[in-house]
Amino acid sequence: MSLESFQLNGRNALVTGSHRGLGAAIAITLGEAGANVGCHGRDPEPGHVCDELRALGKKTFYFAGDVADPKVCSGLIEKTVAEFGSIDILVNNAGMIRRAPAAEHSIEYWNEVIAVDLTAVFRLSQLAGQHMIRRAQGGKILNIASVLSFQGGVNVPGYAAAKGGIAQLTKALSNEWAAKKINVNAIAPGYMATDNTEALRNDAARSRQILERIPAGRWGEPKDLAGAAVFLCSSASDYVHGHILVVDGGWLAR
């Protein structure tokens, strides 16, 4: 296997939730590897990611909207195909978290998290998969799971349920689409320094407890997902199906 198998030249990608954080790092890294990358976020302004992709000489666009809305999901896939001619790579990164003890966790919190973190991932994957099947040229779907795909967490029942569902959805789709040369895999980040973990990082006691368990001794950074994302979106991973690749600084091994 040559290093060329990790290149994404000529591939067309969509990364949801790429306005900042993990999604932004993944989008820029895919562009550095050669892909054209469509970006998405809830913020009406595109931010810096599209500018960085254009500086790399890549085609890009920004689509604003809440993926809890089915029309936004269909619009994202349609926009990608219209702008680039195809969608070869889908990265389902958009997500949210609501923290409250289970006894007080409102049904509104539950519904909101499940809609964004699980239902939208299925709908986007389904739409992208339909396009890939019609083209009969394969494709890559990469879901962003979590270490809570394996653990229950505390005060985040909706998030834990959704991320557990992402792991199973990844396997279910790979079972159906692997023979069609569509790879469906996931990355399960550990405790990363993003907006979703700001409350934990600002809690001195909880942050210390988390750091004491991470063998690497630090919070993860968005760039720590870069290599895993390129691998799972490139031809280097053509025989990898239904896998959840943990990037957690050793958290689960502790």
Can you describe what's shown?
It contains 8 helices and 7 strands. The mean pLDDT is 96. The longest helix has 29 residues, at 107-135. Helix 1 crosses helix 8 (226-233) and helix 3 (70-84) runs parallel beside helix 4. It starts with 11 loop residues before the first strand and ends in a 7-residue tail after the last strand. It is an alpha/beta fold and 254 residues long. It has one domain (3-248): Rossmann fold, CATH 3.40.50. Strand 5, helix 5 (157-177) and strand 6 form a beta-alpha-beta unit. It is globular. It has helices at 21-32, 49-55, 70-84, 107-135, 157-177, 198-202, 204-213, 226-233; strands spanning 12-15, 36-41, 60-64, 89-92, 139-144, 182-189, 244-247.
Brief descriptors of the model:
254 residues; alpha/beta
